[in-house]
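Cross-posting from the modeling subforum.

Setting up a comparison between two proteins and wanted a second pair of eyes on the formatting. Protein 1 (sequence, then structure tokens):
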Amino acid sequence: MFQNRLEGLVLALPAVLFTATLFLLPVLVLLSEGFKVDDTWSLQGYADFISKPLNQMVFFRTLKLGFLVAGVSAVIGYATAFSIFHLPPKHRGRIFGLVVLPLMISPVARTYAWIVILGRTGIVNDAIVGLGLSDTPIRLLFTETAVFLGLLQLFMPLMIISLISAMENLPNDAVAAARVLGANWLQVFLKVILPLTKEGLVIGGTLVFTGSLTAYITPAILGGAKVLMLETLLYQRVNVANDFVSAGIIATILITMSFGSNLLFKRIATART
């Protein structure tokens, strides 16, 4: 298309400069702070950070919630995507629009809606007290359950959209043929649907898992200071403690976990095949 390679490079130069100046450079500066202790390069900051029980607890909580949200999203997402995929085209577009609709609403508004549901005077506590299951409202906010529900509601549409896109490549008669040959629904899913839609699972799993790791608003509102995650801990270290060494270490951990999750999901999908 181009007469020489220089023309293509010139066209890409603004995007490259923008990314390098406003994304890569600030990230590299932040990450480098984790290796500085008393103006010398060292791994002592990582050793100190990992040795603290609070940091260990926050790390494993973040990892646990990320995998839980990705796993539950995959289970619900497969059922939802398979159902939508087999709808008539007219209804499929409408239901797909309902799946996409939450993505058009601010995450802040979507997260604050959970306060109406899980608050002390919220819908759930009113039902619990009204049914006589408890004399007083129970604490639902500022728990891991509240953060899990908020993250699941926030990112599950990404999993459903990825799986629906993957199912577009599923042959129309593949499921019917497996059923005619005597396969039950579990065998159909494991032997036919899962292998043919693994790319959608990898993309959806990566988006949901990394989104859960890096989301700040939802853990901050629904978890508060009682349920710290790595991203809320990062905010505290920078804005409260002015501790850029810990912030650089947390940022490095988050980026490593994001890339690692993508490799892990690809490995799982390949193993299933």
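Protein 2 (same layout):
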Amino acid sequence: MKKILAVTACPTGIAHTYMAAEALKKAAEEKNIEIKVETRGAVGVENALTEEDIAEAHAIIIAADTDVDEGRFRGKPVVKASVGEAIKNPGKLLDEALDKKPTSQDYIAEIQKTKAERTAQRTGVYKHLMNGVSYMIPLVAAGGLIIAISFIFGIEAFKEEGTLAAALMDIGGGSAFALMVPVLAGFIAYSIAEKPGLAPGLVGGMLASKIGAGFLGGIIAGFIAGYIAKWLKDAIKLPKNLEGLKPILIIPFLGTLATGLLMIYVVGGPVKAIMDGLTKWLSGLTGANAVILGLILGAMMAFDMGGPVNKAAYTFAVGLLGSEIYGPMAAVMAAGMTPPLGLWLATLLAPKKYTPEEREAGKAAAALGISFITEGAIPFAAADPFRVIPAIMVGSAVTGALSMLFGATLRAPHGGIFVLLIPHAVGNLFMYAVSIIIGTIVTAILVNLLKRPIDVNKV
């Protein structure tokens, strides 16, 4: 029996990574194929592939939207796909992997092939951005929650030196948040140019923080550093015995110098002005403007349920946490929870409009919804997109608008209802919960109004 290996990884490492892994395992079981899947999620690498696994494998499937080290698969046929493709068509990927023939063991040929494949993969701006965001999120989560805990001692308690509140603020705000933008920039650059891009990216991000260019400056610094490092890597040709100096000395030195000078003399000032204007506008948002922003962010969260539009809204809100603007984050998380919660409620309110499988899926969607995993709505949307997607977008838009209208704030970028239990993590907690409940009800009512009764003869 041929053995297939797989690696799954999505930007946030919370839902799609594991959904793709399960889909591949299930399809392999149905086809009687031996498979081992390594997941590279937010908690790190699980079920890691060993050298023995790789040696025994017929082919490897890489279902990833972030960078995966492919060097260890040298000499093995590789099938590449997005995690979304693995969730939708796992059987097709397995068939493609089985049809692969052993590749040449010629080292140079393999290196050239790997370089060509990596070059082709690294053209996606979205992929590089999401790679940076995925490394930044743990810092934002840890920093935001530790700051919230410091407020238990009083909103101003951290100002008194030597106290526990001051220590917590130093950990959360002074350290974790301070690393946020450098890490974002560093891992955008790493995604583009691998390790040689890391130092220029980190330094560019640090300069963005110092200048006051915020997360927007960090994103720009990451792309500048990444593409400069990649260009240097491709352009500089050295004798073989000096080649080792490129990634550890020449590229970091030249890349960091160029990125730093560009950030200080060209990019930093204008981006700081933009960020100052954006911060001032968002800080003063009230009434209709706040509602409109909440409507837009909410609708974006439900539009593609974990796709690029959803991630754009999420990245915008996460980035603003570093500028101490917490309203959009509250709107985004609330709006991301209501699609699966609303669908769960819909199956309870009108069970006859859903198949037994959909009613069971509704229970799972409830668990995913309270955990802020919007992807829990995908099975319903895939089965009936023209009715479900508009309904959940309206429900999420209402949720986002209400959250902004009520002035709710959120200091953590994830966690669902579990974050609500942490003191001071959520501002205006009661009305925030009301926003989520109303959005859930609106979603459920709209879905049930649009849904047609099921044909009992087909059940």
